[in-house]
């Protein structure tokens, strides 16, 4: 669910991406982008309405604050944001089996809206990361003109960029600067 949180933040929040201004999609394109993100981890894409995509865009803005706080070294602020989402969504674990899948854990809250369910699950995933020694694996890209977020799943935990494209941009600029 942390990968879903990353996807939602990167797809639904404005800023900069790979050296260019980024405006999140709107309307049907936003709903399609959300459905694409929600397929992370080989899940089937749920039907997403424009209203649900709008609600998830609001959640994504709050999730972005978690990554930004960790990047600033302010784990307390990140934890407070996550705790707020957990409380608002009434996230609680329960086992579920559907669509021919085996039993698996969900963290949906009461109410059962798509946005609320994913907000609860993403908040729970981030809570697990923040409550461990791996909290520094959440970050914001350090490439110039990019503010996309990432979760570092590398073995040595030294990731600084949201993508290989940003890493290559920075390395190429450094190479050119040395040669000039």
From TrEMBL:
<dbReference type="InterPro" id="IPR023286">
    <property type="entry name" value="ABATE_dom_sf"/>
</dbReference>
<dbReference type="Pfam" id="PF11706">
    <property type="entry name" value="zf-CGNR"/>
</dbReference>
<dbReference type="InterPro" id="IPR021005">
    <property type="entry name" value="Znf_CGNR"/>
</dbReference>
<feature type="domain" description="Zinc finger CGNR">
    <location>
        <begin position="137"/>
        <end position="178"/>
    </location>
</feature>
<dbReference type="Pfam" id="PF07336">
    <property type="entry name" value="ABATE"/>
</dbReference>
<protein>
    <recommendedName>
        <fullName>Zinc finger CGNR domain-containing protein</fullName>
    </recommendedName>
</protein>
<dbReference type="InterPro" id="IPR010852">
    <property type="entry name" value="ABATE"/>
</dbReference>
